[in-house]
């Protein structure tokens, strides 16, 4: 009798594999048939990107995450200024319609609370700060901020701080020019705003703007935590990643700890001072000495409140300055007009009866340059800046073309007059495309100095 050894691929096993492949192929074919029916029959003519069953537009959004504003443009042109976009776990609406934005941010603002999902998404960074809370907690922080930022003492203190760090930045730029050193201007501006706003907020110098431009772990972790927390809205898997402690969620857990450890260490050092008699006018000192209902603010409350101010101050000013300088390099005729306005300020003003910077002896050298820059900086008082109308116009136009937050996420409403079904979803307000849209702006408005 002849015995045939089994090769491991007997008939039954082959049938099993064929069956498995058939089932998988059927699932794939069925999925695409389902997708076709959903897209071309059930939702034919639906606005926005193609929505696949279960996944929605997740793949397309993630593929275009780094340039979402540009990605929105074809849909705005084809579908109007509002279109829906569903991801695997949540549905969004993108809008660049001024009427919708006014409704959400102004006329029905109280009807759009941030809600639990928004709070949980940003809690690791924003905590219970003003950007991440609703109701009475939001009103209380807004009231505190409004009172403090309108204070003459804080305004005078911040002016001194900004002038000091501006002179440091001018010195770095002067040295770089003399040595032909290449600088990343956006990095330099973000260092300037980080150092200055941290000094105003916590009364502490972190040193990112030292001449050698060192890497400061806190500053790097701050930027990274902000970036990853913001990206959660486009990552349907972030909660699973957090549970498994993998990917970006493993990174943000570490970076957020660096941020918190540094902030609490700074507050501990400041608490060891005699704040009552320190003469400091920073926000930490002012808030620490503030008793609401006879109670001091806790360290957690101070951390959340002040860190949100830090978040607002760093990126907004640093990115605006970056785009402003970029626009000046593209439009030298605008740069020349701005120079003339500043030159007139230098010529017409004398500080405390002394010479203006233009009247300093032409001795040359580094000492002359630094003295002239310092003298000119003394002219830039709060009131003097209000009279620099051309500078003001250039900054406003820069903000129109390059808004600080080009894409703003907004929560779903409690109960809205907007009857469209997709308005029950989260919304993205596309500030960049709205401010550039020729269907919204008049021809005269579009024909600005920067386009000439």
Structure explained in plain terms:
With 452 residues, the protein is mainly alpha-helical. Among the domains are: 112 residues, no CATH class; 184 residues, Orthogonal Bundle (Cytochrome p450), CATH 1.10.630. It is built from 19 helices and six strands. Strands 1-2-6-5 form a four-stranded mixed beta sheet, sandwiched between helices. Strands 3-4 form a two-stranded antiparallel sheet. The N and C termini lie far apart (97 Å). The N terminus is likely disordered.
Which H/E pattern describes the elements? HHHEEHHHHHHHHHEEHHHHHEEHH
Biggest sheet statistics: 4 strands, mixed
In percent terms, what proportion of residues is strand? 5-15%
Q: Would you give the CATH topology of the domain at 131-314?
A: Cytochrome p450
- Rough outline: globular
The class by helix and strand makeup works out as mainly alpha
Q: Give the N-terminus to C-terminus distance in angstroms.
A: 97 Å
Please report the first level of CATH classification, the CATH class of the domain at 131-314. Mainly Alpha
Number of alpha- plus pi-helical segments:
19
The CATH architecture of the domain at 131-314 would be Orthogonal Bundle
CATH superfamily of the domain at 131-314: Cytochrome P450
If you average the pLDDT, what whole number results? Answer: 81
pLDDT < 50 stretches: 1-7, 351-355, 417-423
Number of strands: 6
Strand order of the largest sheet: 1-2-6-5
